[in-house]
Amino acid sequence: MLSSLGSAGGKSAKPSFVSYVTPEEIKSEKEPSRKEKHPDLLPGEVVFCSASTVLKYTQDDLSQRGVFGALLCTNFRVSFVSDEAPTEETGQLFKNKLYGENDIPLSCVDNIYGGYEDKKKLITGGLVKNKYPSKMIIHCKDLRVFQFSLSFSKEEDAKKIFQGIVHHCLEPKSLRCLFAFSYCENTSYPEVQRKKQTVMFDSVEDWIQDMKRTKGNCRVVSENSNFELSPKLPQFFIVPSNVSDEDLTKYQGKGLPMWCWSHHSGCALFKTASIPLVQEDNVPQTYMEKMLTAVAHNHLYSVKTEDLSDTLPAVQDILLSYNKFKQFFLIDNTTEFWMSDMKWFSSLDNCGWLDIIRQCLQKAVEVVECLEKENTNVLIMEEGGSDLCCVVSSLVQLMLDPYYRTLLGFQSLVQKEWVAGGHAFLDRSNHLHLKDKAESQSPVFLLFLECVWQLQQQHGPAFQFSETYLTVLSDSVHVPVFTTFLFNNDSHRDNILRAESPHTQRSPLNCPTVWDWSVQFDCKAQDLFTNPLYSEKPKQDTSVRKSYRPKHLRQLSLPSSAFKTPPKKGFFKDEADNLKKILGVKRLSRWMLSPSSESPQTSSSVREFYEAWQTKPLDYHGLLLPCLDGPSIRVWMQRYLRWIHDVQILGGGPVAMLSKVSEILGEVQELQRQLDRHGCTLTSNHKGARPRAKTASVIAARSSVRLSSSFPFVTSRNWLFKPAIPTSLLQSLMVTGMAGNLADREDDGGGPESLV
Amino acid sequence: MEKQSVGGGDSPALPGVPNRNNKPRTLTNSGSTQASVETLDSPTGSHVEWCKQLIAATISIQMSSIPPDTASRDFKALRDGAMQVQMDEVPLVPGETIKAVAKDVMYICPFTGLVTGTLTSTDYKLYFISLERDTPFILDVNLGAISRLETISVQSHGENTQGMEIVCKDMRSPRFAYKKEDASQPEIVEVLTKHTFPLSNGLPLFAFLYKEKFLVDGWKVYDPISEYKRQGLPNESWTISKMNSSYEVCDTYPALLVIPTSIKDDDLKRVVAFRARHRIPVLSWIHPESQATIVRSSQPLVGPSDRRCKEDERYLQTIMDANAQSHKLTIFDARQSSVADNNKAKDGGYESESFYHNVELNFLEIPNIHVMRESLRKLKEVVYPSTDEAHWHSAVDQTHWLEYMRVLLVGAVRIADKLESGKTSVVVHCSDGWDRTAQLTSLAMLMLDSHYRTLRGFQVLLEKEWISFGHKFAARVGHGDENHANSERSPLFIQFIDCVWQMTRQFPAAFEFNELFLITILDHLYSCLFGTFLYNSEQERVANEVQTKTVSLWSYINSQPEDFTNPFYVDYEHHVLYPLASVRHLELWTGYYVRWNPRMRPQMPVHQNLKELLFLKAELQRKVEELQREASSSHGSLSSSSERTSSPSHSGGTPLHTTV
Q1: Which of B365, B397, B648 sits opposite A345 (nearest CB)?
Q2: N or C: which end of chain A has fewer CB within 10 A?
Q3: pLDDT exceeds 50 at position B357
Q4: Does the N-terminal peptide bond of residue A172 adopt cis geometry, omega within 30 degrees of 0?
Q5: Is B430 a catalytic residue?
Q6: How confident is the model over B563-584, as pLDDT tens digits?
Q7: How many CB atoms lie within 10 A of CB B450?
Q8: Is residue B368 a known part of a binding site?
Q9: Using a CB-CB distance cutoff of 8 angstroms, which residues of chain A are in contact with residue B370?
Q10: Residues B453, B320 contacting (CB under 8 angstroms)
């Protein structure tokens, strides 16, 4: 009785294009001469293999229903082309131009499972020796789940397509095989206005400009523009002005403090790859001390170092945690989903992903505290210097510098810290499935985006970009078209692009970067990247960004720790000596307390810092700190739940608010137009209210009642307005453990008996 | 004068600083339940703005030492009508009197450490003020919110020190320490106890002493006849019966009941006898199109021998027949099926499908009031005073609070779906039909009927499904009663409001009211300031003349509706809203449960920006209209008009003045 309601609810919620004919009927209907369908191929895209009469299960139930069509594997994607007449694509407002809802870019394939009757087996590549599975389940890195039945295709075809997909998705390949190269050779992307928009940090001017912007006074190094100094070093970078030429290349860039950002007080944030210190060998230590002194020299002879390898989880732990976490969202069927719903909160804690996010944010706050409160230079380091250093340094800059909270600013930040900063995107995402690189795979960049999302959730109006933007950016990492995410560092990128260039001796291959959003989305869809509630900076002081922060923030008289900031600026001999003494005695001591060793102290210091900040008036263009308390770190619902039909709130979700805002924006615009017609302007000092009713045009027309919480990723087609109720499972889901004898008691019958 | 407003929470001014005692609108906000202000900051306008709301329920924040330059427009507006109040004067609501004062009391603040100050007990609240820090520190607890007063050991704070813990129903437990030898101290504890539990000490509830006058009369919000009329009742199948007008048929039901037209009096008597506590099946809501109905009742008295009552069977048949669209009737028994079986042994039970033809019986498997009480008790341990970071989610999970919320929502969604898609009438009951039944019917009605999602409509819903149909507020909350361990107490209404909040989270534009409204309701559930939630039934309320002797909560709410309005509201007329009953979409209501933790407070009103936009819109609109007027009369100067609009004032703004 219970189950009947449940499944009835589920069924009617199906899209209308579902085939209701039984597979047998289909088989007889099929004519062998049927022409194979192809998706619209992209330039440079080649079909490797295909099979027809493949059944794609509708994602969300166990029933054997689905859509028939052809399954193809190209050099870019796995694609399913439905036999049904294409449904009106008008609903597809947020259409990705490179791949559709039934396409999976090869790099986006996370895991492939073979389904044998009732078992599901992870396919790890190579030839499937015994029986071919009748079912193929693909888990994607953007968390979509596809299930195909191959049992209606010709056996030969089924084998071929299965083997083909497995081969092209899981087997090691060379970088040259990534789609970007054949795509770029066959398209010409004019060097679009990209330059005007995002600062790419691929020229010395970009770096100089950024240092000027933050009023830093360090040394810009351009000698490596052709990687003469070292291929391990970025093309351009900035170091403390006291670093000499010979210091630059001493340990292939290890230990070399790279400038990230200067605080308005003069102190700055640096990052470096740590040098493994050997007891007997004194040379690296001396070098390290020299570098530390150089950093300290930058401002007031103060420096704090923080070895992130000691205090934050290792990249492998990040991967492990994320692998556990993502499983909650890769849902094969409804039953599984509702079962996991029960353990949801405990599972969340157990996988530790949210805690890793919290740790990164906390570390960033600690660094912010040093810069903002103590005006101390900070040098963060880790082995390699391009993973958690990138996470922390970018977060610090987001918290301190409102410029990076604009859309273009954020893109520039990613360019500066991650792309130019040498984050090994290729190894970390392991697009090439190289066995020896399996170890280095880790979603570090995603971790950063997660942290940004947390900040954005807590301080929405401070960010010009939207949640959707972050979600799309996280997806784009797995679309092997953009140079942004394909390489390990500057010289790697430069080498490959030059080598692949069709015109040797000439400019390197011209590939789009992810910031060329028009490659993926049309203008209308791109409007969803901006936050309509962004509180824009008042016009008058956008020209020069000087002392944007109220002075009083610096007057916090909170207890400062270990290394006291000298009261006066300038060089005093004894202070320098003092510094040397400390350096000498403590060697590479960690002056900042690490959470692992002195946890209560650090977190209480961070807590105090947060509380002191919290009592100040909030300035969306000033310092932003995240609240790190348990309830404040949340799950990025849009990214993780968007494909799960059962958890889409019809008529609800953030888009409901968004559309209201858009509506008002539209009205305001209309009113302003009317005023303009009357030829007068309103002197308004509403800073947040400079209407950019772009988003309005997108959503306004559609009533939010018809949209769902998965907007814009899934648009409601012919969904009936039916609730998802886990009725069939109600009994088994009931919590009985704790209820105990209380559950059996009568509501009122008990008389005056009292409990504890 | 301002002082008369409910300002229990307003704060006295500091010397040299203009007081922010202000317009009644903001003031009354704080009159609700008081809350501690653990903040030691110098808030600016935005902060003030935020406080205005949260405080609503809660906080009387100390607005002293506001730097003149940071004071915003709001703030200036607030300062108008300010008056100088002596620093140590305790703000009182009309009718409130000070009963005892104790000096040099230490408040053991779990967030900011020890503070020493003066503790005052009135007959309405406990008021602690400390002036030892830069900014005054105020803690303000409504006596009604206190569950129990306990002496605790506070050795660490010196010898001869006595400790007192004030365990509150609203999730906090402030602790005080004071010197033993001080002769005045025992007195204040006694006074506090006496006034905290007036009913146990032969005193009236404070609602009967409260003398505030509001322009709006909240007792007029709910008129059963007009509410039924709105639903299209009476009609040919349903009639509004006055059989219970003197509460003789059923003492826990309201005077007016909607029952099938065709039922005969004799039959009805048998049905009355067959239903627990005589709570017969009566109509709560009727679908405007399909005529499917939500009918509520108590359990049938089937007993261990499977007694039958032909009249009851026919009665349900009649209810089914009143809806031509369906030849079925669905009964939702809110209880766990095992519990329902146990009830049979105690002469209760449930309808047998073999006796009631065409009836489908479903159990919604919702645990009872004791389980819920235990769950909230555990939740309190998790949220107060501090929250765990790394194990937050598992800690919340172990309370099962959200899990029960889910079960409840699932039940309500099933009921709503049965009516909307199945076009089938439903009967909802638990054991007595005043706890889980009220939760389920009111949630289902909220999903089905957009009227209940408006500010006024929601008040009607509460008045109807909860208050008039005899949810035992007095017993479940324990107003003025010292027996804190009474097993009749249970947070069912809180659970319901929490479900509503979950719905507002999932459908941020579908409700006309905001979070503050819900928090205010919960605060006044305990406060005993208003008569709205007092007593167990309509009969008791009539007997105690609640409507003439106390003020309604809705009088307060409806005299400043803009504070409780959701700026995102869009009327989803005729749209059924199905909240997603997945734990993934449920979250702990930190704005209510964790609000005492200063770290969890937002610094900025959440929708500040939207509000600015709304003001801009209002301004532009005004300007356009002015220009059009001018154009039509073809004279008048532009400059004058622009001058008028260029200095916008929030106080004169649109009705959408509040944040969520």
Answers
A1: B397
A2: C
A3: yes
A4: no
A5: yes
A6: 899 988 988 877 899 999 888 8
A7: 19
A8: yes
A9: 742-743, 745, 747, 755
A10: no
